[in-house]
Design brief:
globular, about 15% helix, five-stranded mixed beta sheet, 18 strands, single chain, alpha+beta, about 280 residues
């Protein structure tokens, strides 16, 4: 029995050995076995039934015979159906790029095949591959035509990821295109856990950071966003139905490599982190 105070919505969900799992006290607990519901082996199914996940999280505190699962730790949402991303969404990042404030969210897609696990080694696609640490929204209930006031109800959890970007591919034509340069294999690494909203002191003001080879390169807070998470959810759902397990990369703070002309090289180690979610690293070859 844990002595920690927990709420139903501060769960830590991931995927281990291909199975949805809760990270409880440093152990991975098999969600399907814990609940006796075989359908909950799939992370996206679990996110579609987030109230069940919340109840299971509290059940972990009441049981000593937890069904621990072992195996490779995947990205917390290894197979999202849709991955949205937002460019130029931090005031400080717009300033370093010398660009005006956007009048609406600058949305592009990262294709789902770019998602990779923490601890991966990613092959560089060229000489100008950049880092972009981002808070990532994990959709739960989802829906269409959501209002900003209701948007958090559609969100299951938050995680942290990297919008790794090949700047040559992204900017090689006029106008530039974003999606392909940001969707090479491994260019969407995610933390091992998606964390329930109650874990955060303020879901609209989450700190995040990024270091490259031990040097802090990015540090910001989501209170610096031009378009908040509720505004992004409302804007996207006005066009696309948001589905359980969908991801929204919400933008990156100042400190990207392109601003200084420095890029990732073979052997680089990238560490990304956010409040309450923790840190993860990936390497490059």
């Amino acid at each position: 029995m844990s002595g920690e105070f927990r709420t139903a919505a501060d769960f830590r969900l991931g995927c281990v050995g291909g199975r949805a799992a809760l990270n409880h006290g440093g152990r991975w607990v098999d969600l399907a076995e814990l609940t006796g519901d075989a359908g909950l082996v799939d992370v996206n199914v679990a996110l579609s039934r987030v109230d069940t996940v919340r109840r299971a999280w509290l059940e972990c505190d009441r049981r000593d015979d937890l069904p621990v699962v072992t195996g490779a730790v995947s990205a917390c949402v290894p197979e999202p159906r849709q991955v949205f991303a937002v460019g130029l969404n931090y005031r400080e990042h717009a300033a370093e790029a010398g660009l005006p404030a956007p009048v609406a969210p600058m949305v592009f897609t990262k294709f789902p095949s770019c998602i990779t696990a923490p601890g991966s080694t990613v092959r560089l696609s060229g000489p100008k591959v950049d880092w972009e640490v981002e808070l990532v929204v994990v959709i739960g209930a989802g829906g269409r035509d959501l209002k900003p006031a209701d948007a958090w109800d559609a969100v299951a959890a938050l995680t942290v990821g990297q919008d790794v970007s090949d700047r040559e591919v992204q900017l090689r034509d006029t106008p530039p295109q974003f999606s392909l340069g940001k969707s090479f294999a491994g260019y969407g690494p995610l933390a091992p856990v998606a964390v329930g909203l109650d874990a955060f002191a303020d879901v609209d003001d989450v700190g995040l950071w990024c270091s490259v080879d031990g040097e802090l390169r990015q540090q910001g807070r989501t209170s610096d966003l031009f378009f908040s998470v509720p505004e992004l959810v409302a804007s996207l759902s006005a066009v696309c139905e948001l589905l359980p397990g969908d991801l929204i990369f919400t933008g990156t703070p100042a400190g990207v490599g392109a601003a200084s002309g420095q890029y990732l090289t073979s052997g680089s180690v990238l560490v990304s982190g956010a409040d309450e979610i923790g840190e993860f690293e990936i390497g490059f070859a």
